[in-house]
Write a structure and sequence with these properties.
The protein is an alpha+beta fold. The protein has two domains: 104 residues, Phosphorylase Kinase, domain 1 (2-Layer Sandwich); 200 residues, Transferase(Phosphotransferase) domain 1 (Transferase(Phosphotransferase), domain 1, Orthogonal Bundle), CATH 1.10.510. A six-stranded antiparallel β-sheet has the order 1-2-3-4-6-5. Strands 7-9-10 form a three-stranded antiparallel β-sheet. The protein has a two-stranded antiparallel sheet with strand order 8-11. Helix 5 packs antiparallel against helix 7 and helix 7 packs antiparallel against helix 9. The longest helix is centred in the last third of the chain and has 36 residues. It is globular, with a radius of gyration of 38 Å. The termini are far apart.
Amino acid sequence: MPSLEEETESALTALVGTTVAGKYRVDRMIGRGGMGAVYQAANLAIGKRVALKFLDREAAQDQKACLRFQREAEAAGMAESAHIVQIFDSGVTDAGLPFLVMELLTGEDLRARLSREGRLDVASALRIVSQVLRALLCAHEAGIVHRDLKPDNVFLCARDDDPSFVKLVDFGISKVARTRPADTLTHRGTVLGTAYYMSPEQAQSFADIDGRTDLFSVGAILFEMLSGQPPHRAPTYEAILIAICTHDAPDVRSLSPEVPAAVAALVARALQRDREQRFQSAREFLTAISELEPTLLQERTAWSTPSPSLSVKPPVPRKRYGTVVAGIAASLAGFALTAYFVSHRTERTTATQEVTRPTPPVATSVPSSAVVSPAVVPVNSAVNSTKAEPQRAPPSTLNLPRKAAPKPSAHVASGLQLSTKEP
């Protein structure tokens, strides 16, 4: 005789290929959880691909589970945000299985990303958290507290314009503040949520839970993205709750020293045990992140993912300006020295000519064609030690004896042309 678990698995597998509610064709299973499964399906009326989320047979017989399932649909529908998964429809199959029709997401959840990469760089972590906070901004304004934020419920969608577009999922244990007080799914003394990311007030099952509990959870998620582990760790569920309520979270830099001080302070404020000392709203948290940018630029933070065994060092800039300046100085010094010797030699030759033979009349103006064009010495020639070919001077039109004319020197450069190209 098959067990209840085997019957449940068989029933979920049998859904593939069936048509639900007369319009949703179930194509394949894409996820399996403790209380049900998620399938890829198609709306036969318009051909749109969707996701169908089912409660399994055992969970469907649990009234609280069914209420949470319905709460997920209500909460996601009330909190309209591009960063919250859309739910289009809900219903019950002929076999009595409740289902939700949701948008089909392509990508991976944050838990899978962290399992693969260990931890994220500062820029990526802040970018993900900012999108989570935008989702919470809409949810909290709609009177909805998620109460189960964790990496598993932060889905990173692969879209054409963004490879990591955040979607919050699973509002199953959310608290809708605008409903009547009795309709909360939480009884006094009952703790709902995931221990590692739970706020102290939620761990103690306070009756007046508000949006600040979600902000604590965001701080715990950010801590784990930066350090590779949650802020409070213990061997048992109960020990984790005690640690959250009695011990402050450690400085994230004790695990990841490369995290900038300003970011560490942001994480510490989000994880304050006293909710009055925490960020008071998602908007305030978002503003604090936006104000970090100038500080991060001043600290010249390395944005690449650090290696657990290697220290992160800032990149060393190329030393090209010193080389260019040295080349210019050397060229100018050579020009000055050569000009001095040529001038001195010319004066001595002229004096000798005046003593040995009469000087013929010389034109008082020099035609422009007699001016020797300056040899161009690129900066690169100084850096690469490549000799430039000397430029020949045009024939002189002065009425001077051939032997008295000064010979052009290959080392004379009467000007420099600086190259703007990078060496």
